[in-house]
Design brief:
- The chain is an all-alpha fold and 100 residues long.
- The chain contains five helices and no strands.
- The radius of gyration is 28 Å and the shape is elongated.
């Protein structure tokens, strides 16, 4: 079966099929996408899903980035909002006009 025929039957884009064919599962996005695509392909081609999915999971495990603690949020300097600053400026201007 050609990739075009497989794409038509599974509704998976040809580019994704090429990545899967080349074992570039990391290009498919999150591992769940590669697994879902492989499952659909295996069912269409009437292949056993279990060994294929195990292989994909192993491939993703090798390429998964190390889990690190998320960086601490950077605290912003206290700055008034633009609306607050504009209102304060107008009030000060009006007070100056009234007193002047």
């Amino acid at each position: 079966m050609s990739l075009d025929q497989l794409a038509a039957r599974t509704r998976i884009g040809r580019t994704h099929l090429e990545w899967i064919e080349g074992a570039r599962f990391d290009r498919c996005g999150a591992p769940i996408y590669a697994i879902g695509f492989a499952r659909a392909i295996a069912r269409t081609l009437e292949l056993a899903e279990t060994p294929i999915l195990a292989s994909i999971r192993a491939g993703h495990a090798e390429r998964a980035p190390c889990l690190q603690a998320p960086p601490r949020p950077v605290r912003r300097a206290a700055m008034p909002s633009l609306g607050l600053a504009t209102t304060a400026t107008l009030l000060l201007t009006l007070l100056g006009v009234v007193r002047g």
